[in-house]
Design a protein that fits this description.
Blueprint lengths: L1 H12 L16 E4 L2 E4 L7 E3 L7 E5 L4 E9 L8 H8 L4 E13 L2 E12 L2 E12 L2 E10 L6 H9 L2 E2 L2
Antiparallel strand pairs: 1-2, 2-10, 3-4, 4-5, 5-9, 6-7, 7-8, 8-9
Length: 168
């Protein structure tokens, strides 16, 4: 998980080039591939699809100067790992991390953890909103990242996350 998390955050934090992400596995609302099948909340017109290494689906919101990503994996980790530890693992290679807020809530019928923090990657300070969810042997990581001190855009991310549902 460490390598996946580090590559995923590095790709998003450094704003990967846009090309199309998820290919034919994502139809704009539903993602299906192997053991993973889920739907997401509304995707604003201002979000454009980007390709981000390690993310199943990713977007760029140029107006908010933000990147949004969703990653998921099944059967690899997380069955007995607390949400706090899964979140912490994603930021092991970051510096100057400052936890701003952390709260549990219910998402897709399971406990989820929402974490807001600032941290630097390769010396670049950024603001992160991360949601981690475990459900049916799968772990899902949602992320919103924008420059530290930049406001706006997170409301659309929250709607995107809260519309998440796993599918059979």
């Amino acid at each position: 998980m460490l390598a996946i998390g580090r590559r995923w955050f590095r790709a998003i934090a450094l704003c990967a080039l846009s090309v199309g992400c998820g290919g034919s596995n994502f139809d704009g609302h539903v993602y299906r591939h192997g053991d993973l099948a889920f739907s997401v909340g509304p995707i604003p017109r201002t979000w454009r699809t980007i390709d981000a290494e390690g993310a199943l689906i990713a977007f760029r919101d140029d107006a908010a100067d933000a990147s949004i990503a969703l990653n998921g994996r099944c059967g690899l980790d997380g069955d007995d790992v607390p949400l706090e530890a899964l979140t912490h693992h994603l930021f092991l290679h970051f510096t100057d991390a400052t936890l701003l807020k952390q709260q549990r809530f219910e998402l897709a019928g399971r406990a989820a953890l929402r974490t807001e923090l600032t941290a630097a990657l390769d010396g670049v300070p950024m603001h992160y909103l991360v949601v981690v969810l475990k459900k049916n042997t799968c772990v899902y990581d949602f992320m919103f990242v924008n420059p530290e001190g930049r406001k706006g855009g997170s409301e659309a991310f929250e709607r995107f996350v809260h519309g998440f549902e796993t599918l059979g």
